[in-house]
């Protein structure tokens, strides 16, 4: 093997093990045996979302949890990384953003009980931070920070200004039936010196996903007398596709068919849950259905109070459809970080006339949708202005003399 090829292989391995080299840090799992990585407060039947955001004064009891199916004794540690508003690592030192030591070993571990697929469950409390902003919880192995196991985003806010955001139906006739629109004003205190819009960064999340829903905000109008910032939208830049309600599968039981389960197959080594056949919804009218806005819940139907008895099951997702050449179809939700990759890609079964994908999930209730990268993506789920969505408005501000973007304003908006 030539020296050039060796360099390429070494560089590729380095990129896989070190997420910081790619700039932005995303939610990612780097080891096949690591499953169900999430941040939560450990409450019963808690909705698990993709990018949690909580207050600086409410940091207690937030935990990072995951399972290791390899059953090997993992020598894992937790490291907290501070990021700027663009999710790139900042140059702050640990003592500037953490109240305690970094690089904490994971000592709270337990084995699954009575499951067909055994696993080791890990849990660790997030260390408290001194400041607001974006953070990454990184798990690494064997005291080697380059041996990254997984990364998870979270944000901490401190409401120093007032966010007055409001969602409504889009104004124009062309978008009224399919889009929702944001109107936003900011009220800031007397001790804020905002002379330029460059210090402000605004992120609009929809159903806790990572993608910023409004790519470009207009030049703001700063009224220093009223301490008010407004954003005049002239060309519907504030319009956001409504999407559709999420699909659902109740995979809490390996003994009986629950909601939206088409069939249940019990094998000696594992259980397989097959969803009821589903159709693309893009050509149909809006139908209101209860959902978790893409989130999921870890739970066992027969043993609701025993989290360690939640088994892993294979779930087969099915989409009845004609074959779409040159188009890749994915099944996504908070459970797989909405990632369109090889693991979430569906394959076409010509003899059954459907797209299919089998994914190993932990027992619980899951929201999901079908999506693609093509312009016809809206035909898979459809866009409706009536769709119930949860929006989050995050306001970042770099104060004069600071080297970090503070998260100084936060608002949740349930619409409609």
Distance from N terminus to C terminus (CA atoms, Å) equals: 61 Å
Number of domains: 3
Proportion of helical residues: under 10%
Number of strands: 28
Count of helical stretches: 3
What portion of residues belong to β-strands?
35-45%
Q: Which architecture name of the largest domain does CATH use?
A: Sandwich
The CATH topology of the largest domain is: Immunoglobulin-like
Form type? globular
Stretches with pLDDT under 50, minimum 5 residues: 3-17
- Counting helices, strands and paired strands, the structural category is mainly beta
Largest sheet: 6 strands, mixed
| Overall average pLDDT | 91
Radius of gyration: 23 Å
Name of the CATH class of the largest domain: Mainly Beta
Summarize the model shown:
By secondary structure, the protein is mainly beta.
Fold and architecture overview:
It is a single chain. The protein folds into 3 domains: 24-157, Immunoglobulin-like, CATH 2.60.40; 162-242 and 387-415, Immunoglobulin-like; 247-381, Immunoglobulin-like (Sandwich), CATH 2.60.40. Helix content is 6%, strand content 39%. The chain contains 3 helices and 28 strands. The chain has helices spanning 3-17, 94-97, 378-381; strands at 28-29, 34-40, 53-55, 63-68, 76-83, 104-105, 109-111, 120-125, 133-141, 148-157, 162-169, 179-187, 200-206, 221-223, 228-230, 239-241, 247-250, 261-266, 271-275, 278-279, 296-298, 312-320, 329-332, 347-349, 354-362, 364-372, 389-397, 406-415.
């Amino acid at each position: 093997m030539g020296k050039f090829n060796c360099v390429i292989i070494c560089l590729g391995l380095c990129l896989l093990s070190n997420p910081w080299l790619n700039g932005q840090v995303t939610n990612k799992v780097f080891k096949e045996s690591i499953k169900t990585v999430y941040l939560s407060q450990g409450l019963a039947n808690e909705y698990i979302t993709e990018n949690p955001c909580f207050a600086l004064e409410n940091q207690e009891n937030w935990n990072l949890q995951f399972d290791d199916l390899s059953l090997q004794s993992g020598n894992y540690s937790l490291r907290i990384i501070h990021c700027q508003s663009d999710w790139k690592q900042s140059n702050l030192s640990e003592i500037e953003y953490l109240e305690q030591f970094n690089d904490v070993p994971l000592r709270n571990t337990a084995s699954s009980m009575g499951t067909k697929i055994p696993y080791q469950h890990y849990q660790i409390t997030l260390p408290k931070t001194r400041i607001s902003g974006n953070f990454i919880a990184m798990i690494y192995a064997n005291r080697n920070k380059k041996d990254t196991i997984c990364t998870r985003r979270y944000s901490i806010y401190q409401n120093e200004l007032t966010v007055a955001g409001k969602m409504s139906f889009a104004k124009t006739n062309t978008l009224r039936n399919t889009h929702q629109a944001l109107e936003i004003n900011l009220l800031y205190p007397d001790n804020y010196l905002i002379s330029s819009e460059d210090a402000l960064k605004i992120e609009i999340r929809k159903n806790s996903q990572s993608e910023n829903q409004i790519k470009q905000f207009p030049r703001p109008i700063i009224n220093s007398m009223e301490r008010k910032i407004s954003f005049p939208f002239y060309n519907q830049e504030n319009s956001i596709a409504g999407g559709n309600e999420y699909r659902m599968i109740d995979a809490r039981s390996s003994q009986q068919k629950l909601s939206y389960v088409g069939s249940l197959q019990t094998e000696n080594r594992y259980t397989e849950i097959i969803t009821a056949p589903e159709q693309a919804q893009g050509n149909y009218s809006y139908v209101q259905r209860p959902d978790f806005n893409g989130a999921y819940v870890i739970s066992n139907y027969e043993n609701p109070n025993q989290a360690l008895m939640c088994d892993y099951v294979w779930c087969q997702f099915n989409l009845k459809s004609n074959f779409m050449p040159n188009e890749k179809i994915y099944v996504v939700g908070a459970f797989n970080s909405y990632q369109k990759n090889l693991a979430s890609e569906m394959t076409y079964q010509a003899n059954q006339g459907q797209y299919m994908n089998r994914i190993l999930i932990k027992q619980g209730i899951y929201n999901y949708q079908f999506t693609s990268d093509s312009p016809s993506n809206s035909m898979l789920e459809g866009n409706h202005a009536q769709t119930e969505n949860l929006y989050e408005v995050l306001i970042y501000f770099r104060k004069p003399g600071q080297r970090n973007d503070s998260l100084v304003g936060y608002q949740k908006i349930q619409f409609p």
